[in-house]
Amino acid sequence: MKQVSRQARLEGRVSGFVPTMGALHEGHMSLVHAAQAECRPVIASIFVNPMQFGPTEDLQKYPRTFDEDRKKLEGAGVDYLFAPDAAEIYPPGFRTWVNVEGLSGVLEGKSRPGHFRGVTTVVLKLLEIVQPSKAFFGRKDAQQARIIRQMAGDLHLDAEIAVRPIVREADGLAMSSRNAYLEPDERRAATVLFRTLDGARKSIDRGERDALRLTAAIRDALRAEPLADPEYVALVDAETLEPVTRLRGACLALLAVKIGATRLIDNLLIEERGGGFNTEL
Ligand code: PAF
Asked: Over the stretch 230-257, which tens digit does the pLDDT of each residue have?
């Protein structure tokens, strides 16, 4: 992989990288297409990174569909697939970690201690190996994308970090490899994340600017779904990830909700523009 990367750089090519943990869906493929629109070669990686799973999380049962994934990537015309094994990425004696302070300790980081340390460590390793001009991430993991952007800036990484929109199922559920865990009744209930954020979006369109009222309405709407067990509901500044009391600049409404045993996240991007607020689900 390093040889290929070096060659592409020597030839002055703009390479694009889509890191994944496999179980590919249309969300991943939208990142592939975005990379292909601007970059050659396009490299995708599949690596279920053990270091970003907590001891009681779903590492063992995380969906692994390598053959199907490879076919999807080949079918889409991806130039290279990098699929290392865990012993290559974390050789015996490995002891170097990357931690983005502050941003990694809140929200997802609070619910999943050590998760972002695992993400930033593996993403830095992958960027070092693949050496892309541009790396593509999805906005469904909005906090992850923010943290990776911070890391790339702080460590003067060459790769540009691109964050692309959330891809949703027809009923609004954000695409996620973990949706495969949902039983049929849970799958129906899972649309509550989208529905509540869509409700917040409509309130903002009607002029609501108060963050506390918006989050209270989201919590109430989640409570109406018996299978939903909310972990957090937050309205934060999109840069600092600190809670806001009123909408201003760029904000994110972020949700983590358990539907049965499956933990799902989703978010609404709210951006102040031309005297109003633009919202993107
Ligand atoms: O978003 C993911 O799939 C993972 O967190 C990533 C970025 C591939 C790192 O393992």
From this structure: 999 999 999 999 999 999 999 999 999 9
Do the domain assignments include residue 249?
Answer: yes
Same structural domain, 193 and 154: no
Ligand 1: nearest atom to the Cα of 52: 10
Closest CA to 142 of 246, 17, 235: 235
- Residue 119, ligand 1, Cβ within 6 A: yes
pLDDT at 236: 98
- Is there a single domain that holds both residue 29 and residue 154? yes
**247 touches 278 (CB < 8 A):** no
Check if the beta carbon of residue 25 is closer than 8 Å to that of residue 175. yes
Find the 234 Cα to ligand 1 centroid distance in Å: 22
Of 164, 191, 222, the one marking the end of a domain is: 164
Decide whether any atom of ligand 1 lies within 6 Å of the 123 Cβ: yes
